[in-house]
Design a protein that fits this description.
209 residues, wza like fold, 5-stranded mixed sheet, Outer membrane lipoprotein wza fold like
Amino acid sequence: MLISRIVLAPSLALLMFGCAPTWDTYLPAESGPIVEPAAGLSPPFGTTALPEGYENPSGYRVGVGDRLSIRVYGQEELTGEVTVDASGNISVPLAGTIRVAKLTTPEIARAIESRLSQKYLRDPNVSVQLVTLRPFYILGEVQNPGAFPYTPGLSVQEAIALGGGYTPRADQGPVLVTRRSSSGVQSIDVPVLTPLYPGDVVYVKERWF
C-alpha cells in the first residue's frame, strides 16, 4: 500500500501540472492565431499575437496612443515626434496623413519614404522608432486607479502594485481584463500572473463578503 501511494503521488503532481492554465486558456477561440515565441522575446511579447498592436515575428505593430520618433536624414525640419491618433493615423510634414495602425516601424518608415519620394525628395532615408507605448488602465478596487505607462513584461499583479495595491474591499482572486482586437472588445477573467499588453484595461472587482 505504501509503495502504491509513493508511485501515485508523482503521477498526480504531473497530471495537475499538465492541466495548469495558461493565458491562452482565458482567450476566446476567435481571439486570433497563436504565434510561437520568437527567439529572444520575453512574455507578453511574442506569445499570443492578437491581430493588432502586439508583438509577433514581424515586429511590434503600432496602435492608437503610441508615440513615434520620425527622422528624415538630411531634412531636420521633417524630424520630430508624433502620437498615433484615435483613427490610427499620424501627420508628417510634406508626407501628409498616413495610416500606421497595425504597421511595424520599418513599414511606417517605408510608407513615409514612398510619400516623400513621389513629389518632394529623391531617395529619402527615413527611420521610425517607438518612444513610448500606449498606457494601460487599472480601475476598481485599487488605491490609485488610472492610466499608467506600459513596460514590456508587465503582469496583472504588477499593474495592481502600480495602482497602489488592493483596497480593503478588493476581491484578490481573478481580475477582469478588457482588450481590443480586430474582432472587437473582449473582457476576460484572468489570474493575477497573466501578462498584459498596451491599452489593456484591468478591473479589480469588489468582494461580496
